[in-house]
């Protein structure tokens, strides 16, 4: 009987030792398992901050193609449906800061298989429209650092261009950015009304807006603005400087 009790006591001691050892391993493993979680959670806001410096690139009228700006060091290098174009080399008629190739100025443009019009008056922002298998409006540039954004109201005089599959037109407009209440509003020629919310150095209209608009602020202290818009009938782009 004593022998059985002795064996039982040893078994209990071994069990306790094993349990203590297992508890220590479990305690060591817990922080190791949780270590990656904070780093994953931290990546999301970091990416968001980086994205503040990149305006959404394009609208297409019929959703038939894609535009990208792949080279972050060259705001003029545009890739359309896999084909790269250097916008700095567009050499066409110049009107109100826009250089145009292919579009017919006098009759709804039907010349050539590809027409393009680009705003070339700034080293900090480029916007334009392009017509090939679809009609695109695009924007790219050197975004203002969020630490340099104004705190009050800034008004911009802008030059704009828009197109459908059968015509295009260069015009002008005025846009007001209220950095205090984070709103943007404006009117372009032909009664195009723009309304958007400002988020950092970018702005965008609300979902379902009659005129969709998005873009950003460029150069030092948000001295320049660039953006694109879309209605049911046409797409357009605009750029300009603070008054």
From TrEMBL:
<dbReference type="InterPro" id="IPR001677">
    <property type="entry name" value="TbpB_B_D"/>
</dbReference>
<protein>
    <recommendedName>
        <fullName>Transferrin-binding protein B C-lobe/N-lobe beta-barrel domain-containing protein</fullName>
    </recommendedName>
</protein>
<dbReference type="Pfam" id="PF01298">
    <property type="entry name" value="TbpB_B_D"/>
</dbReference>
<dbReference type="InterPro" id="IPR011250">
    <property type="entry name" value="OMP/PagP_B-barrel"/>
</dbReference>
<keyword id="KW-0732">Signal</keyword>
<feature type="signal peptide">
    <location>
        <begin position="1"/>
        <end position="29"/>
    </location>
</feature>
<feature type="domain" description="Transferrin-binding protein B C-lobe/N-lobe beta-barrel">
    <location>
        <begin position="172"/>
        <end position="241"/>
    </location>
</feature>
<feature type="compositionally biased region" description="Polar residues">
    <location>
        <begin position="36"/>
        <end position="55"/>
    </location>
</feature>
<feature type="region of interest" description="Disordered">
    <location>
        <begin position="20"/>
        <end position="55"/>
    </location>
</feature>
């Amino acid at each position: 009987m004593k022998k059985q009790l002795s064996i039982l006591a040893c078994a209990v001691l071994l069990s306790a030792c094993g349990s203590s050892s297992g508890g220590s391993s479990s305690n060591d493993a817990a922080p190791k398992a949780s270590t990656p979680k904070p780093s994953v959670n931290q990546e999301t806001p970091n990416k968001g901050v980086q994205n503040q410096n990149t305006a959404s690139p394009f609208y297409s009228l019929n959703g038939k193609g894609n535009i990208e700006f792949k080279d972050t060091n060259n705001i003029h290098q545009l890739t359309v449906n896999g084909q790269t174009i250097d916008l700095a080399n567009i050499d066409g008629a110049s009107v109100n800061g826009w250089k145009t190739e292919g579009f017919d100025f006098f009759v709804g443009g039907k010349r050539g298989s590809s027409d393009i019009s680009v705003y070339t008056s700034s080293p900090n922002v480029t916007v334009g429209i392009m017509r090939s298998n679809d009609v695109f409006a695009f924007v790219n540039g050197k975004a203002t650092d969020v630490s340099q954004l104004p705190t009050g109201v800034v008004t911009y005089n802008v030059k704009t261009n828009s197109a459908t599959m059968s015509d295009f037109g260069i015009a002008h407009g005025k846009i007001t950015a209220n950095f205090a209440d984070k709103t943007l509003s404006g009117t372009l020629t032909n009664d195009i009304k723009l309304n958007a919310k400002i988020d950092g150095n970018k702005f965008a209209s609300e979902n379902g807006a009659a005129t969709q608009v998005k873009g950003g602020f460029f150069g030092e202290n948000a001295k320049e603005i660039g953006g694109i818009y879309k209605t049911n009938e046409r797409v357009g782009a605009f750029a300009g400087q603070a008054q």
